[in-house]
Amino acid sequence: MNNSSEHPNLSGHRVLVPGGTGAVGEGIVRRYLAAGADVLVPTRSQERSDEFRALLGEIATEHLHLVVHDYTTFAGAQDLATQMVARLGGIDDVVAPIGGWWAGKRLWEIDEHDWQSAFVALATTHMAVARAAVPRLSAGGTYTVILGASATWPVPTSGLVSMEQAAVLMMHQVLVAELDGASRAFALVLGPVSTRAVTGESGWVTADQVGLIAAGLSADTAITGQAIRMTEPTEIAAALTLVTTAVPV
Fold first, then answer.
1. In the chain, N or C terminus with fewer CB closer than 10 Å?
2. Which tens digit of pLDDT belongs to each residue from 124-154?
3. Structural domain of residue 223, as residue ranges?
4. Residue 205 belongs to some domain of the structure
5. Inside any domain, residue 2
6. How many other CB atoms are found less than 10 A from the CB of residue 129?
């Protein structure tokens, strides 16, 4: 499979990508735009919006919708979802590469600022976006969280990241159970990622592949909600195979 040129047809899909201006998010946004979807990406500032549009280049067509918005609170996320419905008519898919890295202290060394920023703030943002967007998803739509492999194993001196990612992974599992097939919830659990910022090594998943798989999940309604690991080459190949039916070969 030529991952750089193949993509499903998502014309008419309305996709929300909070965190889309990040290095992993860029690959996701590019793939959905290439598939013909309308993609709404919130940004921190107009300057950041302009920079991201320039970075995307020719693919930043009229299908890219950049809005300056703070979606990190319950009220903010609700307002973002309301604005998207008013602007595009609904929400079909959400892909949430929301996250950050924190390191340097053992659990008994953290202070309240560490706890609030590395755990509470990120977990709250994930929860805020989910509670705002999930009730608005179209039938058969997808809600996909992007996680690091630290969700499933402890990382010494980065324990708050491991704990927050594990909490979001459980949020995904609860969503799968509560949606009961009405919409679909996925978690893409990533190992090291090659991006525009980090070239990486052979065998790392790429931001482009993350976008390809997320778009493939949106396109193929036969794939049910699940967690998909992409931490090493065998898992990456299996994930790509899973969405092959949604991608022209």
1. C
2. 999 999 999 999 999 989 999 999 999 998 9
3. 14-246
4. yes
5. no
6. 27
